[in-house]
């Protein structure tokens, strides 16, 4: 399974915590690779601690390209 996730900027001050909170559901869902859009997603990478392969990209176009490469 591959998932593509982008920043939830609408969360404001809770954004970093909520991004990190996505780590456990992604692991539980059996996601093998995450394509993450934007630097805001660094907190999920830290929370995953290497349990899922990740690719961080800067925008939707780069995410689309990364997905096509998989």
What does this structure look like?
A 3-stranded parallel β-sheet has the order 1-2-3, with helices on one face. By secondary structure, the protein is of the alpha/beta class. Helix 3 links the parallel strand 2 and strand 3. It is built from 4 helices and 3 strands, in the order E-H-H-E-H-E-H.
What are the key terms here?
70 residues, alpha/beta, three-stranded parallel sheet, 41% helix, globular
Which secondary structure elements does this structure contain, and how are they paired or packed?
Elements: E1 2-5, H1 15-20, H2 23-28, E2 33-37, H3 42-48, E3 53-57, H4 60-69
Parallel strand pairs: 1-2, 2-3
Q: Summarize this, please?
A:
The chain is α/β, with parallel strands linked by helices and 70 residues long. Helices cover 41% and strands 20% of the residues.
Enumerate the spans where pLDDT stays under 50 for 5 or more consecutive residues. Answer: none
Work out the helix count.
4
- Please indicate the percent range of residues in DSSP E strands (runs of 2 or more): 15-25%
| Lateral arrangement of strands in the main beta sheet | 1-2-3
State the distance separating the first and last CA atoms. Answer: 11 Å
Helix content: 40-55%
Tell me the major beta sheet: 3 strands, parallel
Q: How many β-strand stretches?
A: 3
């Amino acid at each position: 399974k591959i998932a593509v996730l982008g920043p939830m900027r609408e969360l404001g001050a809770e954004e970093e915590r909520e991004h990190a909170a996505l780590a456990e559901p992604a692991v539980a869902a059996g996601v093998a690779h995450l394509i993450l859009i934007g630097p805001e997603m660094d907190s999920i990478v830290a929370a995953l601690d290497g349990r899922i392969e990740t690719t961080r990209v800067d925008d939707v176009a780069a995410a689309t390209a990364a997905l096509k490469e998989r």
